[in-house]
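Researcher: I'm preparing a figure for a lab meeting and need a structural model of a single chain. I don't have an experimental structure, so a prediction will have to do for now. The sequence is pasted below. Please return the structure as tokens so I can convert it later.
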Amino acid sequence: MSTKKIKRLPYGNSNFKSVMTENYLYVDKTRFIEQLERESNKNQFFIRPRKFGKSLFFSMLSYYYDMGQAASFEELFGGLYIGKNPTPLKNSYAVMDFDFSGLDTSTPENFKKSFEQYVQRTVCIFLEKYKSVFPRAMELIEEIVRTQEGTGSLRTAMRMSRFLLSSTSMTILQTTLLQWV
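Model: Understood. Here is the structure written out token by token.
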């Protein structure tokens, strides 16, 4: 008699890779990727109640489009709809993830400071992750840290990406997760 391993519910776990590799139950929503890519309005607004899987959905999109995750595509998506029916855009973007849920909102000053620090840290992580794509990444990280640019670091990264767009047809996909706890 064989025993079937029961999958756990991913309550509180919004990391797609963790859900797919650590025996969590996952309801396949990857069919929506094709729909999003066909959508003529490229600005989408995702509004759902708390705990309806928004963060997990965006994490799934991040893993699907991230060029740095190409080697784990089969492991993460092989058994899902999109693994059997990938779009031409799979693993073709440098992805910058934002998750603003941990910001200090106790006072306007603390919020501004934590927001600036978080954006700066996220941009530096992005540049470090894709330093093989962005030739001046390390130089830009040093400049951002030295000047304490905060949100200005995002402008620096976007200026750099516009240069790359014109010279290498590279696209930057920004996944913004706004989840206020």
